[in-house]
Give the backbone structure.
Amino acid sequence: MAVQLDAQLLEILACPGDDHGALVTGTPEDADADYLTCTACARRYPVRDGIPVLLLEEADGGPEDPAKA
């Protein structure tokens, strides 16, 4: 199911990481995934029950993710 957030909310949300950037819906692999992806660091934040979970501990991917190394 694709993430559906208000366009104004999506404009003001940003990645909480040090290299924060704008967030886009989905992931590079799946545009319909229930995630928001940072355009700067590639961290993926889950969206649960329509609520973005913007916690670094909950993020997948990103610069320090050992799976990317």
Summary: Residues 10 and 50 are 12 Å apart (CA to CA). The helical segments are 7-12.
